[in-house]
Design goal:
Elements lengths: L2 H31 L5 E2 L8 E2 L3 H6 L3 H32 L4 H11 L6 H20 L11 H26 L3 H9 L4 H12 L1 H16 L3 H6 L11 H11 L3 H32 L1
Antiparallel strand pairs: 1-2
Family: Belongs to the binding-protein-dependent transport system permease family.
Subcellular location: Cell membrane
Protein name: ABC transporter permease protein AmyD
Length: 284
């Protein structure tokens, strides 16, 4: 065995445990459920009626699917942009090492340590018993027009701290020599950020945007805990729609078909975004 093959084998052994776990808990259940998507099944009966592609055709004609996709995309777009924006701003402000900055980092990151369900309950209370009682501001969770924005705020509050930690690590990895050279040339703070900081932390931007995209598209906990899909299905996401078809409406075949299309869509979109951002890193 030559040196190159030995190195590749060594690298493979590092990812083997994760690969095994992924195969058992993700790949196998997905492949096992794929045949169900071609049937009409209530999820309990031993009889599964084969219906061919009817479930898949129905997806593109179902108004509930269209509504769920719109809700999911709106939530994803808002959380992806603003979680990264606030995370980057926090990182720029408190990236330098100091006792005060350490305390601020802990406070900002702390919401990320809470579960998604607990975060939803906290903000449901804030919206109803703080914003409304103290300031007379109606809870967005009760508005069909603002409910997804209200849920997105919860996600931003929780995930901005995670983005901040990633950006701080990236910023601290940038050599000070670049900044010293820029100062000698008379560069302003904005010019240093635009020409040095942002290009150098591009891999962190790619990682955060890709992760937030995937998390946003499969969101389930926030709307389930805070609104249960209401009001009037205004906060029903694709993940919730799948759950409801599988366990509430007893349409397991149709729910599984949505799940298959949804999973493939997440993989395709995440891959496209990741490749686009990584190509930008190369250009930089």
């Amino acid at each position: 065995m030559n040196r190159k093959m030995k190195k590749q084998l060594q690298e493979f052994t590092f990812i083997l445990p994760a690969l095994v776990m992924f195969t058992i808990f993700v790949a196998y259940p997905f492949l096992q459920g794929f045949p169900i998507s071609f049937t009409k099944w209530d999820g309990m009966s031993p009889v599964k009626a084969y219906v061919g592609l009817k479930n898949y055709i129905r997806i593109f004609q179902d108004a509930n699917v269209t509504n769920a996709v719109k809700n999911t995309l709106l939530f994803t777009a808002v959380t992806m942009v603003f979680s990264n924006l606030f995370g980057l701003l926090f990182a720029l402000m408190i990236s330098k090492k100091s006792k005060l900055n350490n305390v601020l980092r802990t406070c900002i990151f702390m919401p990320y340590c809470l579960s998604l369900v607990l975060s939803s309950y906290i903000w449901r209370y804030v919206y109803s018993d703080v914003f409304y009682d103290k300031f007379g501001i109606a809870s967005p969770l009760g508005s069909t027009a603002w409910v997804m924005i209200g849920l997105a705020v919860i996600s931003i509050w929780r995930d901005a701290g995670y983005c901040m930690v990633v950006y701080i690590a990236a910023i601290q990895g940038v050599s000070k020599d670049y900044y010293e050279a820029a100062e000698l040339e008379g560069a302003t703070s904005w010019q240093k950020f635009k020409a040095i900081t942002f290009p150098m932390i591009a891999p962190a931007v790619t990682a955060n945007f890709t992760l937030l995209l995937a998390w946003g598209m499969k969101v389930f906990d926030y709307p389930m805990a805070a609104t249960a899909g209401g009001p009037g299905r205004a906060s029903e996401t694709v993940a919730m729609l799948i759950y409801n078809n599988l366990f509430t409406y007893f349409k397991a075949g149709y729910g599984q078909a949505i799940a298959v299309v949804f999973t493939i869509s997440i993989f395709a979109v995440s891959t496209l975004v990741s490749k686009t951002l990584r190509a930008r890193e190369v250009e930089i």
